[in-house]
Amino acid sequence: MHFSPVPLSWYLTLSAILFVLGVAGFIYRKSVITVFLSIELMLNGVNLTFIAFSYQLHRIDGHIYSLFVMVVAAAEAAVGLAIILTVFKNRGTLQIDEVDTLKL
Amino acid sequence: MDTVLFIIFAIVAIVAGFNVVLQRHPISSALSLVGVMGSLAVLYLLLGAEFMAMAQMIVYGGAVMVLFIFVIMLLNAGAEKPSSKAWFAQIAGLPLLLAFIATLGFLIYSALPGLRAVEFGSWTMGTAEEIGKLLFTQYLLPFEVISVLILIAILGAVVLALKEID
């Protein structure tokens, strides 16, 4: 079977596209859960960049950073979802523009 | 073969990524995100990161997404209500995003010369053994710090979930 190589820039472009999609979701969506999912999408795009550059440099330090990003994302998901639960218990809504007590 | 696999899974990742952003219902967004994570795991494998591919499937595709779907089902989150967006986001949002991705593309294609071509199997250092060696020697302090972070996150989640605010 013939294996034809893929340019590394394609991987970097894919991660840039995923990151920008995450930013778009973060800005445009109004459901707090979808905003949170968009953050996960951004973190995944960054992880792909780390692993792609790890391949470029032939060092596995990038994998370690990527692992740390994954751990932080898991911790963030646990705390963030607990906050969402608490907000929903107190406000009865998941729309971020209806949670506006801090607004003047 | 590499190119075919890359194109298939890159298209799956991008389509699922668009689906995450465009779906009205949170559960559809969450399930699309599982698709993104699965295809990214395959791409990690193509980049020689076999341990990270498995961790991606288990931690992200498994644990984190189950947590998300659990919360969505617990809250019985329905479709998101359409609401007016800020005038700035309406006017400048899309052009700014396009400018951002154009800048990133320019950086990738012009400012990074000498990028390698990725060939599956030409670099196989991303095994659990190699990562473990590095993690428990050079990165021992960050590893310990991050375990404390996880502990704090668990305590925080429990405290927040039990808290009564009125």
Summarize the structure in words.
The complex is a heterodimer of chains A (104) and B (166). Helices cover 75% and strands 2% of the residues of chain A. Chain A has one domain: Helix Hairpins (Orthogonal Bundle). Chain A is mostly helical and 104 residues long. Chain A starts with 5 loop residues before the first strand and ends in a 13-residue tail after the last helix. Chain A is built from 3 helices and 1 strand, in the order E-H-H-H. Chain A has helices spanning 8-28, 32-57, 61-91, and one strand spanning 6-7. Chain B has 166 residues and is mainly α. Chain B has one domain: Four Helix Bundle (Hemerythrin (Met), subunit A) (Up-down Bundle). Chain B is built from 6 helices and 1 strand. Chain B has helices at 2-22, 26-46, 50-75, 87-110, 128-135, 140-162; one strand spanning 117-118. The longest helix of chain B has 26 residues, at 50-75. Chain B is globular and about 50 Å long. Chains A and B meet through strand 1, helix 1, helix 2 and helix 3 of A and helix 1, helix 2, helix 3, helix 4 and strand 1 of B.
